[in-house]
Structures are given as C-alpha cells and as structure tokens.
Specification:
Length: 530
C-alpha cells in the first residue's frame, strides 16, 4: 500500500477497434482501476470509447439489433427459440455477437484507410488525421464525455492492446493536447506499447502529444505518476519512458522493472464498461507468462522476460465468485497465453466442488493430458465450452523448428485430442501459421488438408508467418534458412513483422498468397477466423 496521496482525478480510455472483433471486454483497464482503488486512488473515470464509437458508426439495422440485446429481449428470444437449451442458445448468441460486430463499423462508414497495416502507415495516417474527419469525430466524443462531467483531470491514460488502436490513441492524445489542455499528462500503455516502445520513442511526430509511455505492467507506474514525483525521480519509476529534459524530442527509459504477479491480482473493476455490449462475458487472468515459453517465433514470453508465474487457484475462484455476485455474469474467458494441464485439473475439480456453475473458455497447449477422454469430459463438466490451441502446422519438421510443445506428437495423437474435445462438447479454434521459414508448399498443403478433414469439429484461425524481433528466428536467421532481414521495413501484416528472404521453401509473398487461398478454402468448407 502506498502512502496516502492527493485526490487527483485520472481518466482511462479504451480506444476504438475496427477490423479486430470489438466485443471482447479488455482486462487491462479494469485491473488498473482495481489496483488504483486498493492504493487509495478512488478518483478514476473510465471512457469506453470503443463502444461509443462503434455504436455511432452502426447502420440502422445494427442499432436496432443492439437495442434488442441491450434490453435483454434477444437473449430471452434465443432461450425460447431453442426450447431453453442453454448450450444451443449460447452458440447462437456467440454468432450473433460476431455478426453484430462485423455489421457495424468494420463494414459501414469507417474508411478502410484508418486500418493501418504497418507501424509506418500508422504514423503517416496520424499526421494526416488533422485534415480528416476522424480528428473532429474524436474531438466531439471527448468533448461530450469530459465537458459534461466538468472534471479537471490530472492524468489521462490510454490502453493500446491492438495495432489499430495505436492510430486512434495517437489521435486522442493529439486532440487532448490541442483542444483541451496541453499541460494534461498523457500516458500510453498496453501490449502494443510494450512491443513497439523502442520505435515509438524515436517518432518525432508524437513527441508533443505523449508525455509518457509505459512498457509492461502499468499499475505501479501509474500510482507513482499520480504522486507527482519531481522530474529527477522520473528515472526511478519502473517501466517508464519519459521526456529527456536535456535532449528535446527524445525520450529516456527509467531504470527499474515492475511486474504484477498472480498472488497480487485484484478482482477487476469494470466501471465504465457496458457489459451488455460485450456479451456479458468477463475476462480472467490466472497466471503470468507462458508455462512453455520456448516457441522460436513467439513474442509473448519476451514481454514477460521469459518468466512464468503459476496461477493461484483460490485467487481465481474468489475473483470469479465476486464477479458473479457483482455483475450476475456466468460467462468467462481466460486471457492467459496458455493454462497448464495441472492447473486445469485443479480448477475443474474445485469449480465442481464449490458449485461455481459458469461457462468458460481458454487457450490450451496441445498436451498428452488431452489424450484422456476422462480429462476432457471433466473440463466440460466444470463448464469449459471453448478452447483455442496453437497447432501452427501438422508437419513434424516444421513443429520441431518452431519448438512447439507438441513437436513430438504424431498426427494420430493430435487427431485424437480434437476428437476427445469435440465429443466432450467443447468447441475448438485451431491457430495455424503458414510460411514459417523453409516450409515447403507440400508441408503447407498437408496442414491445410488436416484442417479440411476436421472442418466439422474445429474452426481454423489462419495467419501468415510474421518475423518479429528478438525471437529465436530473428536472432539466428541462418539457422532457420533466412538469408536477409530488411530491418528498415517493419511492414508485414497485422503483427507488424519484418520483410525477409529465405534460401529454401516458400517466399514471404508466396506464403501470404497461400494463406489467402487457405482462408478462402476453409471458408468454403466452414467458418474460419483470421
């Protein structure tokens, strides 16, 4: 607990989403609110600009459907339609949520140009935004929120989780500085800041509009910033990038690092968010990092310094029980990179013991435990309804290069896992990557054939390989058949990877083309996520 601090108002903003499904509640801001409250900062407002922005840009029919949802009429209609079969109703509601998201801003009045596909394009669009209607739209929304409350905020924090949100966050920061108060402290944090902070601090275009960047966990940095430290102490605030007073246009990195660990997690506070819009489904974080954390292409473990902290079972149970009481919600999804089988066993048994009675989904690693029919059935009995798993490839050679957890499992075993989960009544999303360096066309086709064969029991989520810095493939390119990395060109797909060349296998362009065709093929057989 920090010493008693001045009652300074803080506004936290969840920026708009467009191309990425926008009906998932974020966990970052609600966790920050809870942490600030527990440290005697109770003067926190939250502006869910995503919901406001998306509803504003919906067509008439989408707004009508949203009103039905908001008034609970649609949920009741589903239960009647499916003769009170909860599972069927939930499946229909999930499809409805997706359709509503797709029918709104992603396909109506928002120009495609505001879906930046690279870090470079984000900055270009940001500079152009002053001349575009987007600047005025953001200004009017902020004016409506801030002025009607007549609040004098000390600090405004913006959470940036997805690439497209970075563009909106920069526009929001610019509007705040130019139209409200240039002395307002603006802080940007979140996964996209953590991953791209080294590039952001070099971008002169945003120097006048962003005071601080926070990499990794933002709880302690925010508390210390609200204590208004003298400038000489900024270097002591962990995870912080701040303006260098001796070098105009430059940011300086602080010394320390702070991580919030599972034993210290507080139940998130969802003030400011309309749970109805987000399908009354609440995110939960149980662990820190990935318990495997060795995949040669993955950046998630990098952001946690390859450190893994196990879930604290009773904390997770208590958080869910409190959420059920406060929000009356029985639908949850774990946002962990992957939950270990040992925890899943404990959680399932404990959930049944305390009669938790929830429906939940999570990400899993393909593991030997899932070969047990009894284990899969236990998870279903405890409320598991949906899993997301990183298959990536069916080729044993590619899996070994990727260093996947299931690299030594046979195709027969992987098929058995899918069958076990499906027969237990658990829906499956399989993540697949095409174009891993040296992957041959035949190997990619082998994976695509596996997806087609399982079209009735799983939904594929398909992406081309993206080369990101500091992962094993980047640090040892020759070991993965990469002959050149164009480091000046961080311009490849939604993950903003680098352009590169390979000695053997599909080129980057061939991999992208194959991915596009694979998505079309899977969509013609069944639904596919991208």
């Amino acid at each position: 607990m920090y010493p008693k601090s001045p009652k300074r108002k803080i506004l936290l903003i969840w920026p708009p989403l467009i191309s990425i499904p926008n009906r998932r509640l974020p966990l970052g801001i609600p966790s920050l609110v809870a942490y600030l409250r527990d440290n005697e900062f109770n003067c926190t407002d939250v502006f869910d600009m995503n919901t406001a922005y998306c509803i504003k840009n919906m067509g008439f029919f989408s707004k009508f459907l949203f009103i039905l949802w908001h008034k609970y009429l649609f949920e009741r209609f589903c239960l009647v339609l499916f003769n009170k079969d909860i599972f069927l109703a939930e499946q229909f509601l999930d499809k409805f949520n997706s359709a509503l998201a797709d029918s709104s801003i992603a396909h109506t009045s928002m120009p495609g140009v505001f879906k930046p596909e690279s870090l470079k394009q984000t900055f270009q669009l940001f500079l152009k935004s002053t001349e575009e209607k987007e600047f005025g739209v953001i200004y009017r929304m902020l004016y409506s929120y801030i002025k009607t409350r007549n609040e004098k905020y000390f600090l405004i924090g913006i959470s940036v989780v997805y690439p497209e949100q970075l563009f909106f966050s920069l526009v929001i920061a610019k509007v705040i500085k130019e139209k409200f108060n240039k002395n307002l402290r603006v802080v940007l944090g979140g996964p996209m800041i953590t991953k791209n902070s080294e590039y952001l601090i070099e971008e002169q275009a945003i120097y006048d509009f962003v005071d601080f960047f926070v990499a990794n966990d933002g709880e302690k940095p925010l508390v210390e910033l609200l204590n208004e430290p003298i400038k000489s102490r900024l270097s002591e605030i962990p995870n912080l990038f701040f303006k260098n007073t001796e070098a105009f246009g430059k940011y300086e990195k602080s010394k320390g690092t702070f991580y919030l660990y599972p034993e210290d997690y507080a139940a998130p506070d969802f003030k400011g968010f309309n749970l109805d819009y987000y399908g009354k489904t609440i995110p939960v974080l149980a662990s820190k990092g990935c318990f495997w954390g060795k995949c040669s292409f993955c950046t998630y473990s990098l952001m946690q310094q390859h450190e893994y902290r196990k879930p604290v079972l009773e904390n997770v149970i208590t958080t869910i029980e409190q959420s059920k009481i406060i929000h009356g919600v029985c639908r949850y999804y774990f946002v962990d990179d992957a939950l270990p089988p040992s925890f899943l066993m404990l959680f399932a048994n404990r959930a049944l013991e305390v009669k938790l009675e929830i429906n939940w989904e999570c990400s899993l690693i393909l593991s030997k435990e899932l070969l047990s029919v009894e284990f899969c059935q236990l998870l279903r009995k405890a409320g598991l309804r949906k899993v997301k798993m990183g298959l990536e490839s069916i080729s044993s050679r590619i899996l070994k290069l990727m260093n996947k957890y299931h690299k030594d499992m046979s195709e027969i075993e992987l098929q058995q896992i899918l069958n076990n989960l499906h027969e237990a009544g658990i829906s499956i999303v399989l993540h697949v990557i095409f174009g891993f360096p040296t992957e041959m066309l035949g190997e990619a086709q082998q994976t695509l054939n596996f997806l087609i064969k399982n079209k009735d029991i799983c939904t594929p989520s398909i992406q081309p390989f993206s080369l990101e810095e500091n992962v094993s493939v980047y640090n040892n390119p020759w070991g993965f058949g990469i002959t050149a990395i164009h480091k000046e060109d961080k311009d490849s797909g939604i993950r903003w990877g680098y352009r590169y060349e390979v000695a053997t296998g599909m080129s980057q362009e061939e991999a992208k083309k194959f991915t596009e065709e694979a998505i079309k093929t899977c969509c013609s057989h069944a639904g596919a996520e991208t």
